[in-house]
Amino acid sequence: MQRDPISKYRPVKPIDLPDRQWPSRQIDHAPIWTSVDLRDGNQALAIPMTVDEKIEFFESLVRIGFKEIEVGFPSASQTEFDFIRRLVDEKRIPNDVTIQVLVQAREHLIRRTFESLEGVAKAIVHLYNSTSPLQRRVTFNKSKAEIKTIAIEGAELIKSLVDSIPETQIRLEYSPESFSDTEVDYALEVCEAVMQVWQPSETNKIILNLPATVEIATPNHHADQIEWFCRNLKERNKAIVSLHTHNDRGTGIAATELGLLAGADRVEGTLFGNGERTGNLDIVTVALNLYTQGVDPKLDLADIPALRDTYERITRMNIPERHPYAGDLVFTAFSGSHQDAIKKGMDLRAKNADSEEHWQVPYLLIDPEDIGRNYEAIIRINSQSGKGGVAFLLHRDHGLDLPKVMHPEVGEVVNRAADQDSRELASTEIYEIFLREYVERNSPLKIITIEREDISKSGEIQIEAQILYQEKEATICGTGNGPISAFVDALQAFGLKDFQLLDYRQHSIGHGSKTEAAAYIQIKKSDGTCHFGCGINSNIDLAGLNALVSAYNRSR
Question: Where are the alpha helices (DSSP H) in 102-244?
Answer without folding.
Answer: 107-116, 133-134, 144-162, 184-198, 219-232
